[in-house]
Design goal:
This protein folds into two domains: 229 residues, Malonyl-Coenzyme A Acyl Carrier Protein, domain 2 (3-Layer(aba) Sandwich), CATH 3.40.366.10; 60 residues, Alpha-Beta Plaits (2-Layer Sandwich), CATH 3.30.70. By secondary structure, the chain is an alpha/beta fold. It starts with 10 loop residues before the first strand and ends with a helix. The longest helix is centred in the middle third of the chain and has 21 residues. Helices cover 50% and strands 16% of the residues. The protein has a four-stranded parallel beta sheet, sandwiched between helices. It has a four-stranded antiparallel beta sheet with strand order 4-5-3-6.
Length: 316
């Protein structure tokens, strides 16, 4: 009679960062040290027909911060981290998820999208979102220290919309510049610890992004999607996506709807995930996850040293 497994393999989820995680120089160490990462950057340069790798490594920062550049750049560096880690096959995640733009990176990790297709698609997404921001101007702000219900009440009074439920006490709002400004004032008057305007080119994850939906519908229709190898936790519903049709619908819905990040993490924790690995530049999601659940292990991969540490820690 076999003994019960007293040391079961931990359930692991991969998570991928969104816009705002970019920094000049990201990915350069990986480019120098890893053949797999170098091939990712070379493939991206070829797919876009310009050296986006140089923009990642050298900037200028202002150009890298632009929506049309930052979105593909973050996806590229995230996939370079994933490929450089050589954990495919070593670690089998039970879920993948990404914050906004990061959802596209998750689709590459789950073999739904080819890498070159994803890079082109995300650059087009960035272009369309930027254009929508010019057509229907708006902004975003982080509200710190108010609960979700209080922020929702503020938004109902001002016409803004909740755009990211990041973690308890951190909600990002989106809307016209007037609505966001009024919301910031109102939130402060109701006890918000801080209100932080975000450096973005539009009111992302709000109805003001509707002009981008038509263009993305067309762009998505021209790309081949495959069934996911692993369920993707959807930004809009915090529920698993397992079919191509569900995934395509999600990519359009998330342009104008709230990113349910905290509910997504809670869902994964409640279904047994005990280790999260953030793959890509920065540790924004790692910090949020630690605030959402103190019980889980959170690792990150964004350079050769952190990749080595994450693998040694995650693989039993």
């Amino acid at each position: 009679m076999s003994k019960p497994d007293t040391n079961p393999t931990p359930k692991i989820a991969y998570v991928f960062p969104g816009q705002g995680s970019q920094t000049v120089g990201m990915g350069y160490e990986l480019y120098q040290s890893s053949r797999q990462a170098r091939e990712v950057f070379e493939e991206a340069d070829e797919a876009l027909q310009f050296p986006i790798s140089k923009l990642c490594f050298e900037g200028p920062e202002e150009e890298l911060r632009e929506t049309i550049s930052s979105q593909p750049a973050i996806l590229i560096v995230s996939i370079a981290c994933l490929r450089a880690s050589e954990i495919n096959g070593t670690i089998k995640p039970v879920f993948v998820a990404g914050h906004s733009l990061g959802e596209y990176t998750a689709l590459v990790a789950a073999n739904v999208l080819g890498f070159a297709d994803a890079v082109r698609l995300v650059r087009e997404r960035g272009r369309l979102m930027h254009e929508a921001g010019k057509t229907r101007p708006g902004g975003m702000a982080a509200i710190i220290g108010l609960d979700e219900e209080s922020v929702e009440e503020v938004c109902m009074e001002t016409g803004a919309q909740m755009a990211n439920l990041n973690c308890s006490g951190q909600v990002v709002i989106s809307g016209t510049k007037e609505a966001v400004a009024r919301s910031m004032d109102l939130a402060q008057s109701r006890g918000a610890v801080g209100v932080v305007p975000l450096e973005v080119s539009g009111a992302f994850h709000s109805p003001l992004m509707q002009p981008a939906v038509e263009g993305m519908t067309q762009a998505i229709s021209q790309v081949e999607f495959g069934p996911p190898d692993v369920p993707i936790i959807a930004n809009c519903t915090a529920q698993p996506l397992t079919t191509v049709d569900e995934i395509k619908e999600e990519l359009l819905q998330q342009l104008c709807h709230c990113v349910q990040w905290q509910p997504s993490v809670v869902y994964m924790v409640e279904t047994g995930v005990s280790t999260f690995i953030e793959i890509g530049p920065g540790i924004v999601l790692s910090k949020l996850i630690k605030r959402i659940s103190r019980e889980v292990q959170v690792l990150h991969m964004d350079n050769p040293e952190s990749i080595k540490t994450a693998i040694e820690t995650a693989v039993p």
